């Protein structure tokens, strides 16, 4: 065999070995990710089991809480009216219209199952973030690890704040508005349990995800896909969208109530601009240091 053929054969074998090594590395990473996700699923399963144990309290006080006139949000609104009569009596909610019905044989069983699983996901979300962080962390450089060291904590805190705000404010006001909204006196509002629960979970979890906006902006800014200039130029469109959302969920047309709902969303957007500007500043500083050397 000539030297040229030997060299080609050795290169082919080396190339094949590199390919196999890369493939094994890829599948090894998949296996590691699978283990992290399994642990997260087990944690969610444990929280789901705990939710099953307390299912009566969860259903009565949490799920059907916004359907009752003595719900915390409605009581606070009535107290505000007592101290500030100028807000108007309409802001004090003393009755929630509409009835919740079950139209399926397995409806109430599915209600209990879905609610407990949803509680498990909400309670297990911080641990899921922790497992994702543990999977990503080894691939990061030391500086990247330090800059993202608070990822799990801040993402969890923002999610929890979003869940609380979504449940006590967005969800409560939306339930009051939607159950009392009618286009004709001939139509009676009766809602299936699936429709009611899906509205609560969508509004609550949706707000929790929306409150992750600063974290999402942080990641997009790191990737160079988002800049503070773009966000500042889009501020007016964001303001319109926020005000529309606030106007929909508020039970009365007064500007004060609408701004109460919109204010946290405005602050969230401004915080996201600050995060993006911080990342851009660090990038420019790093580039300047690199070219200086």
UniProtKB/TrEMBL annotation:
<dbReference type="InterPro" id="IPR002033">
    <property type="entry name" value="TatC"/>
</dbReference>
<feature type="transmembrane region" description="Helical">
    <location>
        <begin position="111"/>
        <end position="130"/>
    </location>
</feature>
<keyword id="KW-0653">Protein transport</keyword>
<comment type="subunit">
    <text>Forms a complex with TatA.</text>
</comment>
<dbReference type="GO" id="GO:0065002">
    <property type="term" value="P:intracellular protein transmembrane transport"/>
</dbReference>
<keyword id="KW-0811">Translocation</keyword>
<feature type="transmembrane region" description="Helical">
    <location>
        <begin position="255"/>
        <end position="279"/>
    </location>
</feature>
<keyword id="KW-1003">Cell membrane</keyword>
<feature type="transmembrane region" description="Helical">
    <location>
        <begin position="151"/>
        <end position="175"/>
    </location>
</feature>
<dbReference type="GO" id="GO:0043953">
    <property type="term" value="P:protein transport by the Tat complex"/>
</dbReference>
<feature type="transmembrane region" description="Helical">
    <location>
        <begin position="233"/>
        <end position="249"/>
    </location>
</feature>
<protein>
    <recommendedName>
        <fullName>Sec-independent protein translocase protein TatC</fullName>
    </recommendedName>
</protein>
<comment type="function">
    <text>Part of the twin-arginine translocation (Tat) system that transports large folded proteins containing a characteristic twin-arginine motif in their signal peptide across membranes.</text>
</comment>
<feature type="transmembrane region" description="Helical">
    <location>
        <begin position="37"/>
        <end position="54"/>
    </location>
</feature>
<feature type="transmembrane region" description="Helical">
    <location>
        <begin position="195"/>
        <end position="221"/>
    </location>
</feature>
<keyword id="KW-1133">Transmembrane helix</keyword>
<keyword id="KW-0472">Membrane</keyword>
<dbReference type="GO" id="GO:0009977">
    <property type="term" value="F:proton motive force dependent protein transmembrane transporter activity"/>
</dbReference>
<keyword id="KW-0813">Transport</keyword>
<dbReference type="Pfam" id="PF00902">
    <property type="entry name" value="TatC"/>
</dbReference>
<comment type="similarity">
    <text>Belongs to the TatC family.</text>
</comment>
<dbReference type="GO" id="GO:0033281">
    <property type="term" value="C:TAT protein transport complex"/>
</dbReference>
<keyword id="KW-0812">Transmembrane</keyword>
